Every structure is written in C-alpha cells, then in structure tokens.
Amino acid sequence: MFAQQPNPPGQVKANEKAVNQAYLFAHMTHQDYGKLYYSVSTDGLHWYPLNNKKRVFEDYHGHPDITKGPDGKYYMAGNNSDDDPNITIWTSPDLITWKKHSTYTPNLKSTPGYAEAMQRIGAPKLYYDAPSGKFIMTWHTPHLEGTKDDGERYWASQRTLYVLSKDLKTFEGTPKRLFDWSFGTIDVSIRKVNDSYYAILKDESYPTLYWTTGKTVRIAKAASLTGPYSLPAEPISPNFREAPTLIPSPDNKAWYMYYEQYPGVSYGLSMADNLNGPWYQASGYTFYSDWDKYSLPKDVRHGCMITISQSEYDALVKKFGIEK
Fold first, then answer.
1. For 254-280, what is the mean pLDDT?
2. Dihedral angle at the C-alpha atoms of 3, 5, 11, 16, nearest 10 degrees?
3. Percent of the chain whose pLDDT exceeds 70
4. Which of 165, 197, 200, 167 is nearest to 186 (CA)?
5. Backbone conformation region of residue 265, classed left if phi is above 0, alpha if psi is from -120 to 50, else beta
6. Residue 156: φ, ψ to 5°
7. 155-171 confidence digits (pLDDT tens)
8. How far apart are the C-alpha atoms of 300 and 143, rounded to whole Å?
9. For 281-296, how does the pLDDT look when each residue is reduced to its tens digit (9 = 90+)?
10. Of the CATH numbers 3.30.830.10, 3.90.320.10, 2.40.10.270, 2.115.10.20, which one belongs to the domain with range 22-320?
11. How many CA atoms does the CB half-sphere of 273 hold within 13 Å?
12. How many CB atoms lie within 10 A of CB 165?
C-alpha cells in the first residue's frame, strides 16, 4: 500500500538549495517531563534524536522555548514548576553550551485587571521583536482554583500575561494581560510575519457543543506586538491539542504547525501557505512508513522548533551524535 496523501508543500528539489537549511526541536519527553532533549531535521518533517535520547543540559527545567537575540545569541526560558515564583532565562552562543542569564520574579497580583491572579507561572515563552528592539516574554496564570466538581475551572481561568525587556535582565513595569477576552488561553507564542503580529495559542476552554473550539490551537492577529489582538481564527488543530510550535518550510513558501495530542499521545502537523490559513493536516506519527508524511521520535513532548543553519546543525550532530 502506498500513502494516499500527496507530499507536503514547502520542500525543495534535490538540486535546489533550501532557504531554511535545518531545524532544532528542543523538547522534553513523556518519561522525563520538564528536562531538555534535542531532535533535529533538515526538511522540517522528519526528526531524529540527538545524544542517544539523553538530556543535553542537566540544569534546565521547563517547557523549552528558544529565541535568537540581536546579539546573535540564543535565549531560553524555563521554570522548575508552575508553583515556582521565578522564571529562569538561559543563554547560549551555539545551542550547545548554556549558562544562566537572569532570573525574573513577576509580581502577578500587580497586573492591571487581574488582582486575583494565583502565584503560578505556566510555560514561559520568548520572542525577540526586531522593530521595537525588545523581547516579549509570555506565560499563563490562573485566577481560580479547581474544585472537586469542576476541576476544569482552574484551566478555564488561565490568562496570558506578558512583560517586555531590552536585554532580559531588566523588565519594563508590571506584567500585563495580552488579551482582553473572557476565555482561557495558554501556550502563547508571538511571531511577526510581514506587517502583522500573530499570537499562536491554545484555546483553554473545555470543548462542548456550544464551545467547539475548546482545547484547540488557534491564531489571533494584531498590527502591533502587544495588540490589541483580534479574536482567534478557527481552529488549526483538532480538540485536545496543545504546545503548538511553528516553523517555515525549507523553501520558505509554507508554514508547518506542530502540536501535541496530550498527554504524550502523538504529534500532529497542519500546513498553510500563510498564517491566516486555511490549514490542512498531514498524515504522520503513525509509525507506518508507507503512510507517514512526517515523523518524530517516540515519546517527545512539549517544546519549540526553530530554524538553524547547516553549520549549526553539523555542530550539534558532531557534539551529540544523531540516531537515524
């Protein structure tokens, strides 16, 4: 039997040079939640683990999210748990050697319009915005405890907060809410494409007949970094998906959006030629090679994918070794 789905868009022919030469997936695993692992790819579709599927940096803990700063260095945010009051930021010149850059302790209850915020910090993420010369760091924080009868109340109360910084050592003012919507959002990352900013997010409401978009990956759009953002567009993923991560295709003409079917079940992939959609899903992660159009190592979980150069890819493979 041969795969019944056409090959994904965005690939380059054998004699063509890719615009985006290689990719790094910094992630955790189902068995070792919160610790840092690496997988790499040269086509954005087929991913291979590094370091014999072992941790690449012992000191890190969190949902790894990496951005490249104006100094050419990489920055990664993390925290020990949602209860940890601190966000730790790490830096690296080469994605191989990481050192602590700073610690940020937000005063969550100082956020305007969010006085009941609980002291919890979920999945901090970083993005460097070249036009403003500032980093934006986002995370989610709830304001209601779950109850025995309604454990979902806690998740529905999550709101996305942010803070700006020129250097990730000093931070501007108090954390602010990124969206003014009345429903929960988590796992928010920001990207700028052309003249628009896009907030990639998980709709954290519970899915019902009357809120069909619950627990899906969606995108909101704005003209400026901090908004105001539009209401999110229609879902990109099925329900019960989270931890979205976005990369451009090798030819830079398509977008690949990966997301996890939790808890650690599989990864899905949706594709579009622009972030406004429409999106469609590729077949993959079934471990049937004649059907899969993409593949990831088994048991990978939350993380981020970034583009890297061929020389960075080669250095990572040389340092850690690759398993194919």
1. 95
2. 60
3. 99
4. 200
5. alpha
6. -65, -20
7. 999 999 999 999 999 99
8. 30
9. 998 888 887 889 999 9
10. 2.115.10.20
11. 2
12. 18
Instruction: Say how far apart CA 305 and CA 258 lie, in whole Å.
Output: 9
- Tokens 């909101």 correspond to what residue? 220
In whole angstroms, what is the distance from residue 28 CA to residue 183 CA? 28
Cis check: omega of the bond before 248, within 30 degrees of 0? no
**Residues in Cβ contact with 235 at an 8 Å cutoff, skipping those fewer than 6 apart:** 203, 213, 216, 217, 218
- CA-wise closest residue to 251 among 4, 14, 65: 14
CA angle, residues 114, 201, 264, in degrees to nearest 5: 115
Residue 74's Cβ-side half-sphere holds a number of Cα atoms within 13 Å equal to 19
pTM over 0.90: yes
Count of C-beta atoms within a 10 Å radius of residue 63:
23
Nearest in space to 61 (alpha carbons), one of 26, 41, 33:
33
41 CB burial (10 A radius; 0-12, 13-18, 19+):
buried
Residue positions counted in the chain: 324
Tokens (6 digits) for 229: 């953002």
- SS3 category, 17: coil
Residue 301 DSSP label: E
Residues linked to residue 126 through DSSP beta bridges, in sequence order: 137
Kindly give the residue spans of alpha helices, DSSP state H, lying in the chain: 152-156, 310-320
The structure tokens listed for 287 are: 């471990």
Phi–psi pair at 7, nearest 5 degrees: -65, 145
Q: How does DSSP classify residue 156?
A: H
**CA separation for the pair 110, 107 (Å, rounded):** 6
The total of other beta-carbon atoms located within 10 Å of residue 314's CB is: 12
Domain ranges of the chain: 22-320
Give the C-alpha separation, 267 to 227, whole Å.
Answer: 30
Cβ of 172: how many Cβ atoms within 10 Å? 11
